[in-house]
Amino acid sequence: FKDIDTSVYHDYIIAGNIMGIVSGKSETTYAPLGAVSRAQFISMMWRMAGCPAGDVSVLDFKDAAKIPAYAKEAVAWGVANGIIFGFKDGNFAPGQTINRGQMAAFLYRFLKLEFGADLLAELIGVACAGDGGDGAFEAFNNTGLDGLKALGEGHGVRSGTKALKGLGEQSGGGGAENVAVQVLRLGDVEVGDDGT
């Protein structure tokens, strides 16, 4: 991609593309600052999970016909596995830009699926370790990452899996380059009225 040479996320974007998780707008353009839609994001997660089969007949969203062909199986997989629910009005809004809250909900549910509820609770406990105040994240970021990786490995999650690669590095925003980083870093909110 010719438009990522100066991006701080260059290596993540290239790795995600090589692994088949993210793609560009064309052969030469990635659009690193472009918005990411809800359909694109669930598709990235689905690819990270290994493209498991999804039954498109379960897509009963009012706007199911608007789901792009490339994303139909991914959305079906997300619905079947409790990762996505859609909006209260019965729509999925596949072309809507995903916001950070929706992204967090999708990722949490994906991790719950990948790790299981008990291990995820334990992982969250490690992530929240600290003084409980403003220093909790910093304490975790400085010491908890190795523990988090070791905990995952102790439960049979290989350190080389996509779910544990890149843990602990920070990024901001929800542009295409940041989403690629967040998805690659991963290598019971069951409420659907907020578009999750």
Spans of at least 5 consecutive residues whose pLDDT stays below 50 are: 129-145, 154-173, 187-194
Question: Structural class, from helix and strand content?
Answer: mainly alpha
Report the radius of gyration as a whole number of Å.
17 Å
Number of helices: 7
For the largest beta-sheet, the strand count, sense and barrel status come to:
none
Instruction: Give the CA-based shape.
Output: globular
Instruction: Spell out the helices and strands N to C.
Output: HHHHHHH
Strand content: under 5%
* Helix content, binned percent: 40-55%
Roughly what is the average pLDDT, rounded to an integer?
A: 73
Q: Report, as a whole number of angstroms, the end-to-end distance.
A: 31 Å
Count of β-strands? 0
Can you tell me about this structure?
It is a single chain. This protein is mainly α. Helix content is 44%, strand content 0%. The chain is built from seven helices and no strands. The protein has helices spanning 10-18, 38-48, 72-80, 100-115, 117-127, 135-154, 176-186. Helix 2 packs across helix 3. It starts with 9 loop residues before the first helix and ends in a 10-residue tail after the last helix. 31% of the residues are buried. Residues 129-145, 154-173 and 187-194 have low confidence and may be disordered.
